[in-house]
Amino acid sequence: MLHDGQAKRVAIVGGIRIPFCRAHSVYTDASNQDMMTATLKALVDKYDLKGQTLGDVALGAVIKHSRDWNLARESVIGSGLSLRTPGVDMQRACGTSLEACINIGNKIALGQIEAGIAGGTDSISDAPIVFNDRLRSVLLASHRGRSFLNKLTPWFGLRPGHLVPEFPAVTEPRTGLSMGESMEITAKEFDVSREHQDQLALSSHIKAAAAYDAGFYDDLVTPFEGADEDNNIRRDSTYEKLQKLKPVFDRSATGTMTAGNSTPLTDGAAAVLLTSEEWANRKNLPVHAFLTHCRIAAVNFIDTDGLLMAPAFAVSEMLKDADLTLQDFDFYEIHEAFAAQTIATIKAWQSEQFCRERLGRNHPMGPIELSKLNVKGGSIAIGHPFAATGARVVATMAKLLHENGGGRGLVSVCTAGGMGVTAILESS
Known about the structure:
By secondary structure, the protein is of the alpha/beta class. Among the domains are: 133-163, no CATH class; 179-216 and 293-422, Thiolase/Chalcone synthase (Peroxisomal Thiolase, Chain A, domain 1). The protein contains 14 helices and ten strands. Strands 1, 2, 3, 4, 5, 6, 7, 8, 9 and 10 form a ten-stranded mixed sheet that branches. α1 (32-46) packs across α2 (71-77). It is globular, with a radius of gyration of 22 Å. The two termini are 19 Å apart.
């Protein structure tokens, strides 16, 4: 609905986030709601939205407690926005906040709302640890008892094993493989070398550090809990140091993926303000870019495709919708879940066989200019709070296009469950 000639243009005014910090470091005592509320407050302050009513706020978290069942609305209530502003929880794994941008964007395009916020948050430090099913059964059976004896009897079956807690799963239910283990398979399929991965990881750190030093993130990152910069950025990283790290997902001689060329477990939150042009003009707010196209895809990662290769499919279809080629972009923000994922996706677009057999194209999509890729650092350096990354890359891309004085940007995020969320931004 964003490109049918009848819809309203979706303006991206800008975004903000708290620093992304390694799990179990700075934000150990901060909850998803704490981080998301702080981010929304900063966005409200940045664009003078205090007391104002927006059409909707869409956000979510991948790992959250049952108490966070209404996370979006609760975060809105604490943000400084009018309490007449609604909030909706969303979740599409690592693509959550990019999906939220699409959701808010479509409502604006259809004229249902004039302005809204999209965002996301995730905390590994505050991950829920729950009772296992055996203890839960005892508790529920006791709760259902009508008499004291009925309530007491289930506890006679209690065993030490009932007390073992369950942590959030890090494996795909359908394959039993972790994301890293799955990506190792894809890395081998696309012949992604360890050297190439470490080079991309080093580049991510160098670019992120340079962007902070140049002040690019000054208005995109707001201090929180004593942090004012992403604390995973390694300014002293070198190719030699990265080469010394041992593989962590495939520990055999053929393993290539290490902690250094993979994203770290991260806490953080991010948000983006999207509006109609008319609303932004009335509020005297700058429009940094427009959200013009989007596409979501899923792949058969159980039998055929790599778990994190869905963006390759989504981008292909999105470019057909937009009548563009892969080379028609000034910037590319491709989420670095792992260096291997980013490289495999780029190699897939250059593969005649992949493009013909998997994407239904007669010719390869071709290469991209690597100088245009993740120019202010990527997820390997900055970190990856699952639900927050989409909003981060959208805010970054919008500012890039605005400062560039024109152009077009491609955004791509892979997700668990074999899905990919992609979008095109164009300068205002």
